[in-house]
Every structure is written in C-alpha cells, then in structure tokens.
Design a protein that fits this description.
Elements: H1 6-16, H2 23-36, H3 42-57, H4 61-79, H5 84-99, H6 103-124, H7 130-139, H8 141-154, H9 159-172, H10 175-188, H11 193-213, H12 223-240, H13 244-247, H14 253-258, E1 265-274, E2 279-287, E3 295-301, H15 302-308, H16 316-324, H17 334-338, H18 340-343, E4 351-355, E5 369-371, E6 374-375, E7 381-384, E8 403-410, H19 454-469, E9 473-479, H20 484-488, E10 501-504, E11 508-510, H21 526-530, E12 538-541, H22 545-551, E13 563-565, H23 566-570, E14 579-582, E15 590-592, E16 598-600, H24 601-608, E17 612-616, H25 622-638, H26 643-657, H27 661-664, E18 667-670
Helix pairs in contact: 1-3, 2-3, 3-4, 4-5, 5-6, 6-8, 8-9, 11-12, 19-25, 25-26
C-alpha cells in the first residue's frame, strides 16, 4: 500500500538523492510501476535510474550500467533526445563512467549533451525574451561548466575536444548580445506597419523602464509591471518578425579558419573550473590557416593573475608600470602567464584576433612586456573582438554621411543663473589629477560632485579642427550645451541617420555589484551603486549632472537629468555610427557576466548598433589622452589608415615618448 500511494511516487525523486537507500526499495517500486502503469513512463525510468545510482554507490558497476541503459531507452522513447530528463540521464551516465574508471566511454556522451543543449537554446531564442533566455542559460551553466572542464582535460590529446571547445566558445560568448542585435536588425528592416507599431510600443516601455530604474529607490514604481509588459511585447515581436529564426545559426571553427589571412591567427581565451587545481584555470585555443584542428594551450590559474592585478595602495603610474612589466626575481609576469606559452606557435607578420574572457577583459595584452620597455604592441598586431565569430559576420555598410557629434569641456554644475540659491549643492569635488571618477578598485561608494576637466575642451577643439578639414559636418557641444537631450537627438529615433562619429570626452562611472541592502549614503547616487541592473551601474556624466547625482531630480521638470546610463544608451538606435570614442575613464569596465563578457558602456553601444568602440580600462591621463586622440584621427583621416591600424599606430607614437603603459595603453579598441 505504501509503495502504491501517490506520496511515494511524488517523493521518489527526492528519495533518489539518498544514495544509502537499500536497493530493495527501488526494486519493489519498479515492479509496482511496471504492473500498474507499465514500463514506458517517467516513474519507472526514474526508479531504474535511482537503482543505477545505488549500484554505483556500492561499486556494482555492471548492474549500474545495465540499469542506466534501460532507463535511458525509456527517457529517449517517451520524451525524445532533447528533453531535460534525457539530458539529466546522460549527465549521470557520464559521471558514472568516469567514477568507474571508464572515462573514455563518457567522451561521446559529453559531446552529445553539449550539442543537444546548444540546439535547445538556439530553438528557444525564436520565442523567448532576452530575459527568459538569460534565466535558462543560467540554469544550464553548471552543465556547460562541467563540459568545459571535461573537454579541457581531454583537449591536449584530442582534436575532437579542442574543436568542440572552440565551437562551444563561438556559441556561448556573447550569445545574448548576438541574439538581441539580430532581433533589433530584423525588426528595423521590416516594412510591416503592424510590426512597426509593436516595435514603437516595445521601445516606449523600454524608455519608461530606463527612466524608472534611474529614480531613487523610494521613488521607483511599477518596475515589475513595466518589465512584464515589455517582455510580452518583445515575445510578440519575436514571433511576428519574418525569418528571424533563420538568421540565428551556430558557427564552427572551420568557418573562422576560412576567414583568416595567410599569416593571421585567432585566439579564443577560455576559463574553466579544475577540481584538481581547486579553482579556475585559463587556457587559449589557437587557430592558424593550416591547422587541422584548434590547438589547446594551457595557461595559468586565476589566482596567479589575481596576485598580479592587486593595487596594494600603489599610485596609478606605479601600479600599471609594475603590473605589465617583465617578471622580477624569477616571479611570473602577465606575459609569462598569458602569452609566452603561445608565442612559439604564432605566425609572424599577420594580424592576431583574440577574444578575452574573465579577468582578461580588464587587461590590455598590448601592454605586456616580454623584455624591458618592449611590450607586445611592437611585434604583434592584436585585434580585440567580443568573439572570433565576428570574423565571419561582415558588418553592414554604414550610410555614406559625414556627420560628427563631439562633446567635451562639460559643465557638470548647473548654470547658477537658472538655479535658486536654496537648491545649490555643496562642493565636494573629486580630485583633478587625471579624470577623477569612481574607481573600480577603491572608491565605489564616495559621494561628491564631478569636477571640470579642462583638457577635454582642448581635446574637442583639436578633433573639431581635424574633422572639419576633412569635410565632416561637426556639431560640438561644450559647457552647458553638452546635455543629455543633445546626445539623445543623435539617435535614428529622431528621424535622421545617427552620426558617423560620436566622440565623448567626459566623466564615466562604473560600480561593481555590491549586493547590499544597506547603502552607505542616503543620496540619489545610491541607485547607481546598488542597482541590480549592471547597465544602470555604468554610464556617462553630461551637463548639469551634479544636481541629479545628489538630489535624484533634474534641475527642472520635463528635462533630462544629465546622467546618461548605459541602459539608456542601449535603447538608442546608432546603427549608422561607425565609431564611438569614449574619451573618459574606465569606460571599458563593467560587470563580467560569464560568457556574455562585460556588461557596461561597451555592451550598451554595441546594442545600439555601433561598429567600432574606443574605450578605457583605467583613469587615463588627460594630456596623454588628448595626444592619443589627435594622433589617431590624423592617422585615420589624413594618412588613410583603417581604424584598427590608425589606433595601433597612435599607441606606438605615445609609447615612443614614454614606455609606461599608464600613458599609452589605457585605451582599447573593440570591434
């Protein structure tokens, strides 16, 4: 009676987790299920799988394998080869083979699981919202991490697994970003009037969400309701966009290889958890034109990198000089850990495309010195990508137009003539040595005002003259005119093409996720520090931003507040923009979110449709920034170099003046 009772059936999966249960329980349950409901059911298969795990625990491996096989046949026949029950069965079977000393039998199973998961996730993108896909990816992340760890243990001796690791990186790196861009592109090219109306409604809710998330916590209303409405509209759009599903695909390493020049190479960096090392490890997957398969190159443990990037109270110039220099007294340097294992395998004379991961998002490989005062920038032409998948995705030609928007010399204090004395803000300015902003490492919870950046006015003037001389139509916004309203008018939502170039010389901010419910300060800037949305915790400060930073309100009603969050930028349409230059501090920073890379300004501008992005990794010296930007534009416009070559050449020119990477390596170019 007990075994036939529904409570026994419902509790069976829970009981299976207790591996000390006697096999008699599972044997009796299997007999009863077979008699009452037959063998082809979830309960019977689950009982067999529980029995297999009992046999596994007691080292009765032959009996365990037989039970696993019988359970697997039922899962496959009843639910199909893409069902979560069948995937869970395969996962447990692979674990069993490794535990029983037959890891080679687990190899095809791991490859099968990885393939099925990718197919499932790809199919789901055709009807799930971005938020729902993100949740599903999170739920399956442990299984993916397990596959990467297993594949990494096999890759040095197995071409099949090194290829699978590369294809896995191609699929998961930036998957949500890729999906969002494909979706927005498909919607924007549709001529269906009903679809256009749905798009406008969806954008309306996104703008409402952006505004609501920028409010102080006590003033936020209806966020959950707005999110639900936005998700519902997004799913309607996904279903309504013709051909959207066909635009999504999986790439293979062979397609990447076919896009390489004869002397080029591509590198996918990966990070994985190695139980033997009790922590995460880094490795590189290298691909050259004549390789028969990607080459797996083990690199280092994450704790080794972490030791090298600890500031330990050192000043900026000293810190970056020490971090990137060659090894001292036998100690390993960044070069020793990340590049030396690859060096003998790299071809000479070509471009090296690389896609970072983990801590590497916060580093500039160009600055790693392999000998005194000689960084990798000199012998190598490194090109940073979000994923090497981009080599096979030719970007659309940007519209042939000559509009440019420049912003700099921004007045962060509201105009005193338009603000009553009772509303004036006390002056607690940040330091003015370099571009003072919240540092990722040591000042994430300071209060105060944003200070004027004198060199940014000179920078804008210099760039303005350079661009005008080459026939560009330049709109320069400085002082109190460099407003958030002016920036918003640059998007295609205004009815005009977005500018070819956008150059922003101003303060940027980024706050890491501090997971706190007890903010240190009770001012408006708290929302930017503790928001659970990473694109709110990153942004740019424009004219008059000091008022809203401390009060939470714009200077006047019905005007923007001067704090341009990454979330707000991500809702814009800048698809005609070829280049955005973020001449501000730490604009390349953000939360590193697993396979999706950095959630911050760089992601926001990519979502908006920009092709090239120049951004910074640390507080950059004002004068060096001005020189770098001037040299870059000269190389690009006057000397007719392409953007990556013009940027690299500008860095080489600054390097010749001062080898300290603090002055020349703070900016990186992302394509």
């Amino acid at each position: 009676t007990l075994l036939l009772h529904p409570c026994w059936s419902n509790g069976l999966s829970w009981l299976q987790s207790f591996e000390q249960l006697p096999e008699i329980y599972f044997l009796e349950a299997s007999v009863i299920y077979e008699r009452v409901v037959g063998k082809k059911c979830q309960e019977y298969a689950g009982t067999l799988q529980g029995l297999a795990q009992v046999y596994q625990k007691s080292s009765q491996y032959d009996q365990a394998e037989a039970s696993f096989f019988e359970a697997g046949k039922i899962w496959l026949e009843v639910f199909g080869n893409t069902h979560p029950y069948y995937l869970d069965h395969l996962d447990k079977l692979a674990e069993f083979y490794c535990e029983s000393g037959h890891c080679q039998k687990a190899e095809p199973i791991h490859l099968k699981i990885n393939n099925i998961r990718q197919i499932n996730l790809l199919n789901n993108t055709a009807f799930l919202s971005e938020q729902e896909i993100m949740q599903e990816e999170k739920l399956n992340r442990k299984i993916n991490d397990k596959f990467i760890a297993f594949a990494a243990s096999r890759a040095p001796d197995s071409p099949e697994f090194s290829a699978a690791l590369w294809d896995n990186a191609l699929f998961y790196k930036g998957m949500l970003l890729e999906n969002a861009l494909a979706f927005r592109n498909a919607v924007s090219h549709s001529q269906d009037s009903g679809l256009v109306e749905k798009k406008l409604n969806w954008q309306h809710f996104q703008r409402l969400l952006a505004a609501e998330r920028g409010e102080p916590l006590a003033m936020q209303n209806n966020i959950q309701e707005l999110e639900e409405q936005a998700i519902a509209l997004e799913k309607e759009l996904i279903r309504a966009v013709p051909g959207f599903r066909e635009t999504l695909k999986r790439f293979s390493w062979k397609e990447i290889q076919a896009c390489l020049g004869s002397h080029d190479a591509a590198i996918e960096f990966i990070v994985y958890r190695d139980s033997a090392a009790a922590g995460e490890k880094y490795a590189a997957l290298l691909l050259r034109p004549d390789d028969t398969h990607p080459v797996f190159v083990p690199l280092c443990e994450e704790k080794q990198l972490s030791r090298l990037v600890q500031r330990a109270g050192r000043k900026d110039q000293e810190f970056y000089w020490a971090m990137y220099r060659p090894g001292q007294n036998g100690a390993a340097s960044l070069y020793d850990l990340l590049w030396k294992p690859l060096e003998s395998l790299l071809p000479a004379g070509g471009k090296i495309y690389y896609s970072p991961t983990g801590l590497l998002h916060r580093l500039n490989p160009d600055a790693m010195q392999f000998k005194k005062n000689t960084p990798l920038l000199k012998p190598y032409h490194l090109i940073r990508l979000g994923s090497t998948r981009q080599l096979c995705q030719m970007p659309e030609e940007k519209k042939a137009h000559r509009e440019v928007v420049l912003m700099g010399g921004v007045q962060y204090e509201p105009d005193e003539r338009t603000i009553p004395s009772s509303a004036r803000i006390e002056d607690h300015t940040f330091g003015t040595n370099g571009r003072g902003l919240f540092s990722y490492t040591d000042s994430t919870l300071r209060g105060g005002n944003w200070s004027y950046l004198p060199f940014t006015q000179q920078e804008v003037d210099t760039v303005w003259h350079q661009l005008q001389q080459h026939g560009f139509e330049v709109r320069a916004y400085t002082g109190n005119a460099a407003t958030e309203e002016a920036f918003r008018q640059t998007g295609r939502n205004s009815g005009l093409p977005s500018p070819k170039i956008i150059h922003l010389a101003t303060h940027g901010y980024f706050f890491p996720d501090i997971k706190t419910t007890n903010p240190v300060r009770n001012d408006a800037s708290t929302i930017f520090k503790i928001s659970d949305h990473p694109l709110i915790r990153s942004g740019l400060i424009l004219a008059g931003g000091n008022h809203a930073w401390l009060t939470g309100k714009p200077l006047r009603e019905n005007m923007e507040d001067g704090i341009l969050t990454a979330y707000e930028i991500s809702q814009m349409d800048l698809s005609d923009t070829e280049l955005v230059v973020l001449s501000a501090c730490e604009t390349g920073l953000g939360d590193v979110a697993g396979n999706e890379g950095v959630y911050g300004l760089q992601r926001a501008f990519k979502l908006a449709g920009v092709r090239y992005l120049i951004m910074s990794l640390w507080k950059v010296d004002d004068r060096a920034t001005m020189e770098l930007m001037s040299s870059f534009y000269t190389n690009w416009l006057q000397k007719k170099m392409d953007i990556p070559t013009a940027f690299r050449t500008a860095q080489l020119e600054l390097l010749a003046k001062d080898p300290n990477p603090f002055f020349w390596a703070g900016f990186v170019l992302m394509e």
